[in-house]
Amino acid sequence: xxxxxxxxxxxxxxxxxxxxxxxxxxxxxxxxxxxxxxxxxxxxxxxxxxxxxxxxxxxxxxxxxxxxxxxxxxxxxxxxxxxxxxxxxxxxxxxxxxxxxxxxxxxxxxxxxxxxxxxxxxxxxxxxxxxxxxxxxxxxxxxxxxxxxxxxxxxxxxxxxxxxxxxxxxxxxxxxxxxxxxxxxxxxxxxxxxxxxxxxxxxxxxxxxxxxxxxxxxxxxxx
Length: 223
Ligand SMILES: C[S@@+](CC[C@H](N)C(=O)[O-])C[C@H]1O[C@@H](n2cnc3c(N)ncnc32)[C@H](O)[C@@H]1O
Fold this sequence. Notes:
Helix 1 (23-32) links the parallel strand 1 (13-17) and strand 2. This protein is 41% helix and 23% strand. It is α/β, with parallel strands linked by helices. The protein has a domain at 2-115: Rossmann fold (3-Layer(aba) Sandwich). The chain has helices at residues 23-32, 43-55, 94-104, 128-133, 142-151, 164-179, 181-187, 190-208; strands at 13-17, 35-40, 62-66, 79-85, 105-114, 117-118, 154-161, 212-213, 215-221. It is built from eight helices and nine strands. S-adenosylmethionine binds next to strand 2.
C-alpha cells in the first residue's frame, strides 16, 4: 500500500481510518517521515496505540483520535492521503464513509485501502452466515467501490487482486485458535471460541466458493 504513495515524506499528512493498534501509522511515520492521524472507534485500542506510539518515540508524528469514519472529526481537504485496512466493512453506511473520505482528502489526494469484500459475481443471500455473525447487512464489492468512487470524482489508479489471501488468512487464524483452544476457553468462554471457529469456517467456505474478494485499491481524487 505504501508503494502506491511514492511521494510520502516529511510534512505530508495521512489519516488511517479504523487504525486499530496503529501499526501502519508507525510504519509510515518511521519509514517515510510523514504525519499520520489514527482514527478509531475503540478507546481500548486507542489507548494501546498511544502507548506503543509513545514507546516508539513517534508521538510527534502519529496522533490518535477517537471517532467514527462515518463522521470524521477533521477539516475539509486536510490530508494528502486517506489510508484504511480492513475496517470499512464494519460500516452500515459505506456511502457515508466514502463521502467523508472525499471531504477530508485534498484535491488530487490519494485513497488507498483494503477491505474484505464480496466478489462481483457473488449470488444474493449466500453470505448470510458471514454477515449474521458480524451484524452486517452487506459487504462492499470491487464494483461497489468503483461505482461509488467514480460518482465522487475519483479515478482508479490500481487494483492489486490478492483474493487468494482470504482463504489463507482465515484458515490460519482458525488453525491457530484450534491449536490454542484450551488456553483460549480459559480466557473467555467456550461458547465464544466455538462461535469464532464457526465464523472463521464461513469465511473459508466463502473464499473457496469464489464469493469473496480482497486486494489493494488505489484511487485518486480529482485535482
Ligand atoms: C479488522 S480491524 C483493522 C485494524 C487495523 N486497520 C489493522 O489493519 O490492523 C477493524 C478496525 O476498524 C475499527 N472500526 C470499526 N468501525 C469503525 C468506525 N465506525 N469508525 C472508526 N473505526 C472503526 C475497529 O475499532 C478496528 O480497529
